[in-house]
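Try this one yourself first.
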């Protein structure tokens, strides 16, 4: 039960972060209207209301590739018996 609550908290935090950074926008396109209720001598009559509608706009992430040259260092392996000669030659 705790893990479900933790996951829900993380989902709400991620949604708030996305809205706060502008990655997700949720503007209302149609406002809500409550139902109209009228009472008369014969009873109660109700005319339906209207639910709000929202248009969710999300950002996009572009992923691509590019070619680049990477310099690779040269690795030289020297056996233990030849290390002294190599240090003298380099110095």
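Now uncover the answer:
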């Amino acid at each position: 039960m705790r893990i479900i609550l933790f996951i829900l908290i993380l989902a709400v935090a991620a949604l708030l972060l996305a809205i706060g950074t502008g990655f997700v926008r949720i503007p209302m396109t149609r406002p809500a209207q409550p139902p109209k209720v009228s009472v008369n001598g014969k009873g109660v009559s109700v005319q339906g209301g209207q639910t709000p509608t929202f248009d969710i706009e999300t950002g996009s992430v572009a992923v691509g590739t590019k070619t680049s040259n990477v310099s690779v260092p040269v690795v030289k392996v020297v056996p233990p018996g030849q290390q002294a000669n190599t240090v003298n030659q380099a110095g």
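Discussion: The mean pLDDT is 86. The chain has two helices and six strands.
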